[in-house]
Amino acid sequence: MRYLCILLLISCASKKTVKQEEVVEKKNSRIQTHLIDKDLAQCSDCIMGSVGDEALKKTDKKIYFLYGAEDMNLTNYYFDIPVVLNKHTRMWIKYFTGRGRKHYIRYAERSGRYGPVLSKMLNDQNMPRDLIYLAMAESGFRNVARSWAKAVGPWQFMPYTGRKFGLDVGFYLDERRDPLKATIAASKYLSTLYGMFDSWELAMAGYNAGEGKIKRAIRRYRTKNFWKIVRGRYLKKETKNYVPKIMALAIIGKNLSAFGFTNLEFQKPLDFEEITVPGDADLYKLGDVLGLEFEKVKKYNPEVLRWQIPPHLEEYTLRVPVGKKTVWDEIEDKTIVIASDYKKYYLRGHSSLRDVARKFKVPVDVLVKLNNGHPTKKMLPRTEVLLPFRNDHVHRKNHLYADLYEKPRKSIVRKRTYQKWIKRGSRNGKEIQNPTEYYVVKKGDTLWDIAKKTGVNINTIIKSNYKLVKRRMILPGDKLAIK
Fold first, then answer.
1. What pTM was estimated for this model as a whole?
2. Residue 306 neighbours by CB distance under 10 Å
3. Contact present, 468 and 480 (Cβ < 8 Å)
4. Which CATH class is domain 410-481?
5. Measured between alpha carbons, how far is residue 45 from residues 77, 79, 93, 309 in Å?
6. Alpha-helix runs per DSSP H in 312-438
7. Which of 115, 322, 327, 352 has the most Cβ atoms closer than 10 angstroms to its Cβ?
8. Enclosing H/E stretch for 467
9. Which CATH number is 4-259 given?
10. Cβ count near 375 (within 10 Å)
């Protein structure tokens, strides 16, 4: 039985040349399978992708010893990120060995699929290999993980940050879901953060909260000691918990038996080959010629959001199961997989592509490129417009377009509505000068309720109490000037 894992052939180590960097960043960089490297194979008591003590001691990277755990009979005490045992990390160890045990088992077993390649890629870019536990904390090694704030992928990139570090985040592709490309981007981002703070604790905190937040925390508390900063109230609880959570995951992940995680069934490493397909290739047609189900093709290429390769690309590199490259190479006419089954819409009146885009909730530039048209030019009734949906899909119900039609959470809707009221009140309200009468907010009160109770215009209330209401929604006990 072959125990194979993915290996990025192009080295991105600290001594790489500019030419090598350019090769790494090419969209279609050559990637192939390779045997799991010796260092990873030696860590027998670890999740897949971790490196044991003996291998770490031989590395030229800075390593850290886990003090205070000498009596715990651990297998591995060394890490290449700072790891400490304190009340914060102990709390997370207790959680993952108790109530959260089932979550840890799921994350750990999933590490078998991508852990080794993520670790290898981090190492190739001269980054700590134990940063795989940051990915574990972010997504549990799930490519399709998506937070309520729309962070996506194994490294949970927000759209802006993903694009900033070289990922394509668009209608057809979302490379935040690609474990290999996203790992390169995460390495760049974490390297940037470490360069700013010269501290892996602060770099990890910055990955969660943003570098601006951490810079302000450093200025406020006049220290770069993460554990001193978390004593204050400035950072959110999520960020305060984030770093010790990663440390706890790492401590358990490199000492599985000590914490009772035995007989884990690691997923098999993903073994694949690459093929080059033409732009606008239909993944259903491709699956037919390769003898694969559509969902199988999508599983190997999680960054492809829709049913086809972007039409504007000349070609694209896809991953396929081992053995399918030969099948593809034997096909002479590669154009047989070009998409042709687009859904068609016929205008009911004089409309523009922008109107159609608004109706179907798709970006107008997608329709412009698909129809070689102009976004605002009015077209005649019955004009045919191609839509980026497959003809046999019910687009409002198909999971491939779910992101276009999902409804935001009620809490987000409330927040957006509140912010609209605040902006309107700040523009149109009349500020009360030297207020003499105040209203104390009661449980269940809204600004609209208070305006009705007191007979004071809501815009006036907002304008006169702007410093309070612009920061957050009103809470019981708040005093609002009303006269």
1. 0.78
2. 20
3. yes
4. alpha beta
5. 12, 14, 17, 41
6. 324-329, 353-360, 364-371, 402-405, 410-428
7. 115
8. helix 466-469
9. 1.10.530.10
10. 14
